[in-house]
Specification:
Helix content: 55-70%
Membrane topology: Multi-pass membrane protein
Shape: elongated
Protein name: Transmembrane protein 254
Largest sheet: none
Keywords: Membrane, Transmembrane, Transmembrane helix
Order of helices and strands: HHHHH
Strand content: under 5%
Structural class: mainly alpha
Subcellular location: Membrane
Pfam family, one: TMEM254
Radius of gyration: 19 Å
């Protein structure tokens, strides 16, 4: 999806593209499972998860601090990516505050699955005569 573009100077003031579903789903499921491991490990049916179950149980029993650290680091990275998305919006001429908020939220939730489209976006340069 691409939101309306401004014709003034050829710069897109409100460019937005929704992230692809599969990479977004992988990110959400990964962070969701990670959070489940951290906050509710007693509710996980390890034997029902195939090879992921014993691996998860091993990580929680032997590397609990490391798992917690990686969980919070993952969210810290998502915050950093979201802030970077705002900087990119401004540098690429996306000045609409609602669109910037959409990029921020989408990047916070989906990380690189979203940020990729903003990094890849090349606004058209208007020829000066």
């Amino acid at each position: 999806m691409v939101v309306a573009k401004s014709n003034a100077g050829g710069a897109a003031t409100s460019y937005f593209r929704i992230a692809k579903p599969l990479p977004s789903l992988v990110t959400v499921l990964g962070l969701g499972y990670f959070g489940w491991m951290i906050f509710w490990p007693e509710t996980i049916a390890y034997q029902s998860l195939g090879p992921l179950g014993p691996f998860t149980q091993y990580l929680l029993e032997h590397h609990h601090t490391l798992v917690h650290s990686w969980y919070w680091l993952a969210w810290l990275i998502h915050v950093g990516e979201s802030l970077y998305a705002i900087v990119l919006c401004k540098s690429k001429g996306i000045t609409n505050s609602w669109t910037q908020l959409l990029w921020f939220l989408q990047t916070f939730l989906f990380g690189m699955a979203s940020l990729y489209y903003l990094i890849d976006y090349r606004p058209r340069r208007h020829k000066q005569t």
